[in-house]
From TrEMBL:
The gene is secE. This is Protein translocase subunit SecE. Essential subunit of the Sec protein translocation channel SecYEG. Clamps together the 2 halves of SecY. May contact the channel plug during translocation. Keywords: Cell membrane, Membrane, Protein transport, Translocation, Transmembrane, Transmembrane helix, Transport. NCBIfam families: PRK05740.1-1 (NF004371), secE_bact (TIGR00964). It holds the Pfam family SecE. GO terms for biological process: intracellular protein transmembrane transport; protein secretion; protein targeting; protein transport by the Sec complex. Component of the Sec protein translocase complex. Heterotrimer consisting of SecY, SecE and SecG subunits. The heterotrimers can form oligomers, although 1 heterotrimer is thought to be able to translocate proteins. Interacts with the ribosome. Interacts with SecDF, and other proteins may be involved. Interacts with SecA. InterPro entries: SecE_bac (IPR005807), SecE_sf (IPR038379), Translocase_SecE/Sec61-g (IPR001901).
Length: 126
């Protein structure tokens, strides 16, 4: 198998940006724990602010730009999907629930049958 499709961070500036983004996330987590006396809303805001700042830092790097490009292409692909109608969704959900019920009943009967054979016939415990 070829590893030619694996892309790594090659630029020192990109590495520094990604390391800084990780440090900012860790700082947000530590800040959330460190300022325990603050109101919860402020602590959550501090944590979310750290995540947003880290995302902005990471997205200025080349891997971040590739990630944004991939997300945009994925969103365009999702728009082209033909989604099932409500009726089709309900029918398939019914089929899945029916299958789960039948399989559950089958496994329960198999378990009880094996229990009867092993404990009742072979070992004589019941």
């Amino acid at each position: 198998m070829s590893n030619s499709s694996i892309e790594t961070v090659t630029s020192s500036a990109d590495r520094a940006k990604l390391v800084l983004a990780v440090v900012v996330v860790i700082a947000g987590i530590v800040g959330f724990s460190w300022f325990g006396q603050w109101p919860t809303v402020a602590r959550v805001g501090l944590f979310i602010g750290g995540l947003v700042l880290a995302a902005l830092i990471a997205w200025t790097s080349e891997p971040g730009k590739r990630t944004l490009s991939f997300a945009g292409a994925s969103y365009n692909e999702v728009k082209r999907v033909t989604w099932p109608t409500r009726k089709e969704t309900m029918q398939m959900t019914g089929v899945v629930f029916g299958f789960v019920f039948v399989m559950g009943a089958f496994l329960w009967l198999l378990d009880k049958g094996l229990e009867w054979v092993i404990y009742g016939l072979l070992l004589g415990w019941k």
